[in-house]
Specification:
By secondary structure, this protein is mainly beta. It has one helix at residues 73-79; strands at 14-18, 24-31, 35-41, 44-50, 58-64, 68-69, 92-103, 106-115, 118-133, 139-150, 169-183. β2 (24-31) and β3 (35-41) form a beta hairpin. The model has no long low-confidence stretch (mean pLDDT 87).
Length: 185
């Protein structure tokens, strides 16, 4: 299937605003080389602008780093320090798309991720959920996206050796976005 506006039922060009009550930005990291620690960010904003051709679309996101929540307050406080996110100096993480491209039936969104004042290119692999009209007559769009980043490339270097000889944290962070948007114009 070619990725065109006519191939996507309900597709509409325009600006889509985030529905935060039906959206989530989460992450996971390997812990002690045997399991994963998961968390999410409670405050974020994302704007999607769809073009007449879906490949001409763009996305901008801002995540409030202080809103990190792993379900353990002491760990969250540590994540806000200069060992990890350095919230006092870099309160936001941002993503600005640079291109949308087809990969078979999937869309890949290339963009610049800025964390701790360091900007690196990343690619989001998306899974399109669809477009529908809700009970209030609003046109909604759902999409999931994922990427994996190396935290050390963004200056997040903290780690500690374990008694078994390994390290407390892995370097790879998986970032997942489950987003729902409302068509604004």
């Amino acid at each position: 299937m070619a990725i065109t506006d006519s191939a996507i039922p309900g597709y509409a060009a325009g600006t889509w605003t985030l529905d935060p009550t039906h959206s989530e930005v989460s992450f996971s990291v390997r812990h002690l080389a045997i399991s994963k620690v998961k968390g999410k960010f409670e405050r974020f904003d994302v704007t999607l602008v769809t073009g007449e051709n879906p490949l001409d679309s763009s996305i901008d996101a801002t995540i409030e780093i202080a809103s990190v929540n792993t379900g353990q307050e002491q760990r969250d406080q540590h994540l806000r320090t200069s060992d990890f996110f350095a919230v006092d100096e870099h309160p936001q993480m941002t993503f600005v798309s640079t291109a949308v491209r087809a990969d078979g039936d999937d869309l890949l969104v290339d963009g610049d991720l800025t964390l701790r004042g360091i900007t690196k290119p990343v690619t989001l692999r998306t899974e399109f959920g669809g477009i529908t009209t809700d009970g209030y007559g609003q046109t909604k769009l759902g999409v999931e996206a994922t990427t994996k980043i190396d935290r050390t490339q963004f200056g997040v270097m903290w780690n500690a050796a374990t008694e078994a000889g390994g390290l407390t944290l892995g370097n790879d962070i998986t970032v997942n976005l489950d987003l729902q948007f409302t068509h604004a114009a």
